[in-house]
UniProtKB/TrEMBL annotation:
This is non-specific serine/threonine protein kinase. The keyword Kinase applies. Residues 345-600 form the Protein kinase domain. The keyword Magnesium does not apply. Pfam families: Pkinase, Pkinase_C. The gene is YPK2_2. One of its GO terms (biological process) is regulation of fungal-type cell wall organization. Belongs to the protein kinase superfamily. AGC Ser/Thr protein kinase family. RAC subfamily. It comes from Saccharomyces pastorianus (Lager yeast). Coiled coil: none annotated. Its EC number is 2.7.11.1. Keywords: ATP-binding, Cell wall biogenesis/degradation, Kinase, Lipid metabolism, Nucleotide-binding, Phosphoprotein, Serine/threonine-protein kinase, Sphingolipid metabolism, Transferase. Residues 61-74 have a biased composition (Polar residues). Residues 1-12 have a biased composition (Basic residues).
Amino acid sequence: MHTWRIPKFKLGKSKDESENNVDENNDKSWGNGLFHFHLGEKHHDSSSISNDNQQEHNIRKTSTNETLPSTLNSPKFRDNASFKNLSGAETVNSAALESKSCQSTVEKKASHSGSGLMTVKIYSGKDFALPFPITSNAAILQKLLSSGVLSSSPNDDSEVAAMIQELPRYETVEQGSMGESLIKGTCATKFIPSTILLPGSENPSPLLYFTLEFDNSITTIGPDMGTMEHPIFNKISTFDITRKLQFLKIDVFARIPSLLLPSKNWQQEINEQDEALSDILKKINTNQDILLDSFHLPLNLEVHSVPQVRLYNHHWISLERGFGKLNITVDYQPSKNNPLSIDDFDLLKVIGRGSFGKVMQVRKKDTQKIYALKALRKAYIVSKCEVTHTLAERTVLARVECPFIVPLKFSFQSPEKLYLVLAFINGGELFYHLQHEGQFSLARSRFYIAELLCALDSLHKLDVIYRDLKPENILLDYQGHIALCDFGLCKLNMKDNDKTDTFCGTPEYLAPEILLGQGYNKTVDWWTLGILLYEMMTGLPPYYDENVPVMYKKILQQPLLFPDGFDPVAKDLLIGLLSRDPNRRLGVNGTSEIRNHPFFKDISWKKLLMKGYIPPYKPHVKSEIDTANFDQEFTSENPIDSVVDEYLSASIQKQFGGWTYIGDEQLGDSISQRKSFR
Ligand SMILES: Nc1ncnc2c1ncn2[C@@H]1O[C@H](COP(=O)(O)OP(=O)(O)OP(=O)(O)O)[C@@H](O)[C@H]1O
């Protein structure tokens, strides 16, 4: 356990402060002089007079004596790069935007959006198989079949008895394990119900189920009845489409009772011979679900002129490793530009708080899809001179397409608030898991760092620097894949040779060139990636100190030390990433320099980008609606979109003009806004 770190501490701003300040029901909570501390990007106006005092004040909240060491250069306060909008058609100088903070961004109105609805109907499955044999114990199988929902009429004993009578036909005798009688994996599923009714429970528990994943939105589909070999689903799921991804990802999971496994002797032999199967057996023995197989269903969602297109019609798809088939129909319906409002969502739970408002779990009323809705108060954003960062967050989220970045589904606004609708990622923050486990294994650290490398690379390709990599901003999805969130500190429009000099980030992760105020470029993200890898593998960032000025000094001067027995290849990678000279840092010549390091030698980047590796750790997530991995402090709150009564002038409103997003394009002022601004 490492409890050394002040949770959620971003430079100059403690979580306590931000939470107090965003209490939307508390009028005293804003305009009280506290600020979001990204020096230089927003303190050019009169409020910047108290910069130094505020910096001290805010930092003092989290530890003692934490001002910048006097030996360091003062951070610079200007940032002159320009701000490019989504279409790239118009640019607005961000420095001008920041310093005046009240100039309008004029955005192009698009004639159509790329949005639509995709409906997936799943009828049944066949030929499902297991990658291992099961015991041919008639008593166990009979009991299991009797608790299963085999057909629409209640299972009668004679049906089960007839199935059990068939059992000897499928028995084989394994030679190596003392003549044990087993049923091959290909036949085993005939004797396992796809869903069972546990004693005392009214809801069936699926033993076979699958997830449909599109743009990080997940739906779980469980069977109504049938055996595992031939499950009947008859389910429909509708997805909101706001970007044209090329695949629908289907993952099939099985929940196998450990009683069905062959003897311990047999398992022991497997453990010595087959690593992949041994992992599966380990999961079954610890009551975890196993990923049976996957499929990437190709989709053609290009703009269709007809109102509805049938992409697949009662089509049988064979899973990638051949463990079964599914019968599905897929329809796509392009939709009109209908900007959303808060009324289009059921508010389910509060799941977090950011600097400017709360994050809620919501259900979109028409498609029933679950999302995370981030609400931000306009007046508070303006008072903190955070308009540029807020617009940048929305812009980056709408532009970037990477499976390891939380996708933006929609954005809309009311006169008082901005709303971001994001995929709901419910495996918990990496920060929480790291705190809980102290440190991660080499394999687990490598997996997370590889997915993060792809996420940062996709941002760099869009000329965006992330600048705030830390475990608090990294979520795990239900399977354990990375989902990077919180783009409030992104810097846009950074070409390879461009430098910026804004002093921002999180103390433990600040690169030396930021501390020295020398100007920095994309390579700061490689420094933070190195710090994160070190922290995952050892439990602490390399230069951590409770005293922030001492920590800064260590970042600048202390040699990089490794615990005894540290993996030499990881060490070599870290030495490269944590080079104090950004011009010699690994990655300065492009991401491929890092990808090609021997640390990642066994990784197929193509496979990784398809989410093709099974994550080393699967978070405990019961369903797509499960909020068990969120702090009760939030989930116990009443989920309401609190009413704020703050008048904002037309010129201020204009700054948020290009906020609305419902697909590939920006919409400028939405219809609903025009209505509401009267
Ligand atoms: N897409 C999401 N799915 C699930 N939870 C989310 C999602 N986005 C945010 N959260 C939760 O809400 C919290 C706050 O969100 P976020 O970090 O984006 O806010 P912020 O204002 O940018 O935060 P900060 O104050 O750190 O800048 C996160 O730590 C996370 O727990």
